[in-house]
Amino acid sequence: MKVVLMSDIHYNCANYFGRDPEVAMECLSEDLGAEYEKAPYDALLLLGDYSLDHWAWQTKGTYLGAGVSNTKAFVEKYLPRLLKKGVEVRMIPGNHEQYGDELWNAFTGHKRQEHIVLGDILFILGDAYGADLDPIEHSDGTYVGADVEKIRALMAEYPDKKVILCAHWFDVTRESEDFRRLLCEEERILCLFCGHNHKSIIMNTGDGAGNKPILCTGHYSYSGEVNNILCPPGYRVLEFDESGLACKYVTHSHAYQIEGVSFTTEYAEINALYIPFR
pTM for the complete prediction? Predict the structure, then answer.
């Protein structure tokens, strides 16, 4: 099976990498179209920050400031173009979508926490910024970490499935001791996926938290690297069968401009990882 995971699209927020937001979304549609043509993907998992609807700095968030939800606009205008026939989609918020359950569902058609079973793997998509929702003042969200009770309940519901945890962000240093214990004890948990840092790097939960890989999903807006070219716009592709899973960060050939300097990237697959199943 094949899954595409991505985050930090930040639609209609700025001319990131020198591209008009509409041009960037056209490129995204083309990129995922090419990915599907190469080999159809079964699911698209979106891990937050489709906007700057809620934001504490400079021009402030668009939702409190101007009543504009770019998350809603992205879902209505572009998400249908990313989904081919038969492709499942799951969509969770980031720290820039601080909508309560009712508004989040109204704007996206999804819940703030989701899950999906694909083959022999249960994907659990948590809500890392699920506190202080529907704010009346501009903010960057409140990190709450993983909902261990929810994770344990879903794992009990699917006792024969391997597990992958997804969220907008995982900060293991701020997670509960119960979560760290869960990662240590549960061999079924293979790895974690998150966005937020706008990087495509592979991190690790550390000795006290099971030494699980954390695969960062990059961005389709602006790079979190000091050298932007280390992480151009892209997404992660996860493929798995009965023997193991393989994951890579995929970027396509595009023309960009940063601080007046124009350049072109070539198609690339970077920051790859293979995890064999026991």
Answer: 0.98
